[in-house]
Amino acid sequence: MRIIQVDQQARSVVNLVLSASLLVAALVILCYRFIETSQLQLYQSFSVSFLVGIAAIGAALLLFDLNSKREWLNLGSRCFALIAIAAAADGLTGGIFDIHDAQIHPALYYAIGITGGWVFLRLKSAWAVRLQSIVAGLAAIATLIIILLHFNYSTPLLARHPSGSLISASLLLILFGALWNLSTAAASELPRVSGLTMLLAIGGLVIATSAGIVLFHHDMTEARSRGEEAAKALAASRSVLGREQMSLLLRVAERWEHYPAGIHDDMMELDIKAIFRDVAYLESLILRRGDKLVWERARAEDYRFREHLLNDAFINEQFDEHRKDAVQMMIGSHPEPDKGALLYVHVPVTFDAQDYENGYWGVFAVLNIPRMLANQVALRSPIFTYTAVSEDLLLDQAGFWVTPETLDYLQNHALFLYQGKMVTEYIIDRPVYSFMYDLTDLQARALLQMLISVAGIIIVLFMALTVERNRELVIQGRQLKFQAEHDALTGLYNRTTIENAIADRFHHKRDLTVLFIDLDGFTLINDSLGLHVGDRLLQVLAQRLTKIVGKIGTLARFGGDEFLFVTVKMHGDAEAVAHLTQEILQAVAQPYRIMHHKIYLTASIGVAHQSAEQHTPLELIQHADMAMHQAKRLGHNHVQIYQDSMSLQLKASAVMRSSLQEAIERNQLTLHYQPIVRCSDSATVGYEALLRWEREPGKFVSPGEFIPLAEMTGQIIPLSEWVFRRACETAVRLQEAESTVKIAVNLSTLHFNRTEFAPFLAQTLAETGCKPEWLELELTESILMDNTDYAVEVLQKLREQKITIAIDDFGTGFSSLSYLKKLPVDKVKIDRSFVAGIRTHRADRVLIGSVIKIAQSLNFEVVAEGIETPQQAEFVSEMGCDYMQGYYFGRPVPFEEL
C-alpha cells in the first residue's frame, strides 16, 4: 500500500499552484501585450523581460525538487533558471524587446536573477535549504509590506504603472512563497499531483488571470476614453474661444477702417480704452505697418510687449510674412514666465490711403492666456491636458507653461492617454495631449484588480488542495479496503475476506467445498535461509496457485504458510477434487529459485464439503483444517478428505486437555515407582518414577495418551516440575530405609531445553534436601538430536554435580552411534521392544548383544527394560547387561506400597 504523506502532498499542490501562477500569469500578460491593438504605454504595465523572467522562474520552480531522481526534471529546471537569469540581465540593460519603457524597478530584475541563479545551483546541503527558507520567508514578508504600502501611498513603488507595481509585487510574493514552500519539503521526493488537479489548477489560473486582464483592459480603455474626451474638449473649447476673440478683433478692425478721417484717431483711442475696460485678459494692442511697429497701447504702463514681439524669435517663426494680409495667431512666452503664455493675434487693417501711408497695416492684440481661460469652469479630474507649442514646450490647460519638473513627472510618472489636435483657421495645428496625472484613482482600481487576481489564485489553491485531497482519500480508501481484504505479502485475499465470502454463501446455497493447504516444513526454510527467502517463496507459490484455481474459486492466504481455497459444486465430483488437489500438489512441488537458493517443498491438503451438520462457516473451515492435520499425520504431501471421526478424535483430545488441566490444578496425579535391579544379584538399586493419572476411580489414563498432549499444549512444564519435586521428596524418604537406591525421573524435552531448567533443578534439590547423587535423569535421544552442543553442555554440568544421566529407549531413535563417544552419559536403557522379541527374533538378540558390547566398551552401564519372564532376565544377564527393569521384578506402585 502506498503511504500517503499528507504534508508532502499539500506541499506538492502548493508548489504546483504557485509555480503555475507565475507561469500562467506571465504568459497570459505576454499574449495580451501582443494582442492589444493600440500598443500604448497605458496598456503596457510590464516589460517583456520581466514577464519572460517570471514565466521562466515559474517553469523552473514547477520542475524544481531537490529530492527528485528524474534527471530530465532537474535539467529542465536548470534550463529555465538560465532563461530567467538572461531575462533579468536583459531587463537591467534596457529591455531590447520592449516598445515602451515600463520603468520596472531594478529590484524586480535582481530578484528574478538571484532566484534563477539559486535554482540553477540546486544546493542540497542542510545549510543551503535552511538559508533558502529564511531568505525566502523574509523576502515574502518584505514584499507583503510593499503591497500594503500601496494602500497608503498613491505613487506606485515598483513600476510606473500602478497595476504593474502591484501585480509585480504580487508575483514576487508568490515567487518567494513557492521558494519557501519548497524549502520546507521533507527528505523524500515530492509526490506527483494528479492530471485532474493539474488541469483544474491551470484552467482556474488562466480564468483568474484572464479575468484580471479583462478588468485591467476595461479600466485602461475607460481611462483612455476619458483622456480622449478631455483632449477633444480642450481642442474644441480653445477653438471656440479663439474664434470669439478673433470675431471681436475683426469687428474692432472693421470699425477702425471706416472711421471718418477727422475723428479717426480719436475714435480709435476710445475703442482702445473700451476694449481694455471690457476685455480683462487683453494686455496690449500694437499697431504695425509693414515691418515696423508704429505704436503700442498697454494695459499697464510698465509693460511693453512691443520689444517682446520684436525680439521673440519663436513668435517670429510662427508669423507668416506671406500672409500679412491674413488673420494669424501666435503663442509666445510671457516676459514673466510664471504669469503664463501670451496669445499674439494679428488682424490686418486697411486704412484710407489719403489719411495713412501706403503699406501693410495690422494690429497685434496681446492676450493673457491664463486670464482668458480663467472664466472657464475647470472640473476636478485626475486627467490633465496639454497643448504642444513645440517639441519641448507644453502649455497646460490653465494657460501656463509646463515647468521642467512637471515635464519630468509627465515623462517618468504620469501615464499618457491620448494625443489629439487643435485645429483653427488662424493658427498652426497644435498637438493636444492628455495624461493620467494623478494616479490615486488608477491605483485604487489596480488594488481591486490585484485583490481579485490574488483571490482567484487562493480559490484555485484551495480547489486544487480539495480535489487532490479528495482524490488521495479515494485512493487511500481503495488501498485501505484492499489492505483490509487482501494479504499484504501475496496480494491474495486474507482470512477475514475469505471467511466473509464463505459466510455470504453459506446459508443460501449449501454447495461449498474448502481446501486447506499447509506447507510442509516451511518453518525450517525461514529459520535456515531467512525470512526474506520465505516471503519470496510464498509470493511465488501464490502466483502458481492463482494460475490453477483463480478462475474456479476464491483463493486466500489464511495464515503464515496456510492457504484456503473455496469453490462450489464439487460435493459429488470426487474425480474433480482429486484432479484439483493433484494439480496443487504438483505446483507446490515444483522447485523454487529464490536468489541463489533452489528450494523444494511439499504441502498437505485437507478437503471439507459443506454438509447439513455444519451450522456456521467456521465449522466448514475447521473441518478442512482437521483434514489437513490428518494428512500431515499420514506423512505429509498428502490429501485427506474430512471424515466425522476426525472431529470426534479432536473433541476427545480437547476434552482430555481440559481434564488434564483440572487434574493438575486439583492434584489428582500421582507417581508410581517401578524397581530397577542388578543383574548379578537381583538386588534393587533404584526406582523409576512413573506418572499416573487416575481419571476415574480404578481407571488410569495411559501416559502414551496424555504425555504427548501435555507436550503439545505446554502443560508438560508444570507436570514435569511437579514430578521432580515429588521424586526428590521420595528419594529423601527412601534414603532413610535404603541408603543405596536412586530415583530415576523421565525428563521432558521441552523442559530440558528451557534455560531455567538447571536453576529449577538446583532449587528443587535444595528445597527438598535431596542430594544430586540420589537422582537419575532419563532422557530420550531426541533431546540430544535437537541441540547437541547445548545438551552436552548442560548434561556435563549435571554430571559434575554427581547426577546420573541415562539415555532412555535407546535404539528406537535416529541418532548416530558416533554421538555416544562424546555424550556425558552414565547409562543406556535398551527399549522393551527389543527385549520382547528375544525368544522369536534372532535379530533382536543380536542387536541387544551389540548394544551391550558398544555401551560397555564406552564405559556405559546398560539397563534392559521390559523384562517380564525368567528367560528374558537370564538372557540379558548372560549377555553382560548390568541392570534390569520390568514386570518380572515388580509393577509400578505408589510409594506407600513399596
From TrEMBL:
Tell me which Pfam families the record gives: EAL, GGDEF
Q: What range(s) does the EAL domain occupy?
A: 653-898
Membrane-spanning ranges: 12-35, 41-63, 75-97, 133-153, 165-183, 195-216, 446-467
Domain of life, per the record? Answer: Bacteria
Sequence ranges assigned to domain GGDEF in this UniProt record: 510-644
Keyword annotations for this protein? Membrane, Transmembrane, Transmembrane helix
> PROSITE patterns annotated for this entry?
EAL, GGDEF
Protein name per Swiss-Prot or TrEMBL: Diguanylate cyclase (GGDEF) domain-containing protein
